């Protein structure tokens, strides 16, 4: 089994050890790619949604896209502050995202809502694991950033799922 190689880091006076910074850069790189992917999955839905509730869902997708873009910037800036090189191209995102590719033929608003909720749920679970990883590494600031992103992703998941969740009463 090949050993995972730490990324080359730019020189910095950052107080975290080089090993910790390297591990956090790798962690953040995965989440940068995922944030970029989610940003464009959400925009894909925004551009192509159709249905009776079009305007509300269209606006929701645009708001979720803007919020995800903020996460992209925050994650990339933390990654570079640790001495890493942010890999923020569409190609890098497609190679490193944890998300399944978004179907390009979706139109129906409920189909978009359900599919985006799948992506948001996958990232939410990965963010929870990343919080633990950053905590164990002793990187409180990365842990805090990922916690903030996780809160936002969980809220977005709630907004998406609320369109199709129905409580059954007896």
Could you explain the architecture of this structure?
This protein is an all-alpha fold. The protein has one domain (18-98, 107-161): Ferritin, CATH 1.20.1260.10. It is 69% helix and 0% strand. It has five helices and no strands. The chain has helices at residues 18-48, 54-81, 90-96, 109-137, 140-161. Helix 1 (18-48) packs across helix 3 (90-96), helix 1 (18-48) packs antiparallel against helix 4 (109-137) and helix 4 packs antiparallel against helix 5 (140-161). It starts with 17 loop residues before the first helix and ends in a 9-residue tail after the last helix. The mean pLDDT is 94.
In summary, what is this structure?
It contains five helices and no strands. The chain has 170 residues and is mostly helical.
Helix fraction?
55-70%
Oligomer: single chain
Report the C-alpha radius of gyration, rounded: 17 Å
Unreliable sequence segments: none
Whole-number count of domains: 1
């Amino acid at each position: 089994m090949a050993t995972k190689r730490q990324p080359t880091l730019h020189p910095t006076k950052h107080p975290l050890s080089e090993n910790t910074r390297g591990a956090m850069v790798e962690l953040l790189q995965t989440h940068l790619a995922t944030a970029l992917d989610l940003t464009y999955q959400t925009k894909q839905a925004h551009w192509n949604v159709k249905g009776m509730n079009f305007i509300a869902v269209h606006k929701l997708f645009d708001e979720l896209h803007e919020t995800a873009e903020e996460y992209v910037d925050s994650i990339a800036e933390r990654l570079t502050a640790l001495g890493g090189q942010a890999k923020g191209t569409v190609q890098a995102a497609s190679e490193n995202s944890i998300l399944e590719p978004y179907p390009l033929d979706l139109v129906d608003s409920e189909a978009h809502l359900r599919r985006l909720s799948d992506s948001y749920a996958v990232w939410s679970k990965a963010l929870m694991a990343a919080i633990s990883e950053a905590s164990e590494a002793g990187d409180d600031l990365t842990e805090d950033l990922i916690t903030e992103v996780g809160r936002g992703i969980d809220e977005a998941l709630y907004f998406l799922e609320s369109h199709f969740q129905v409580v059954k009463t007896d």
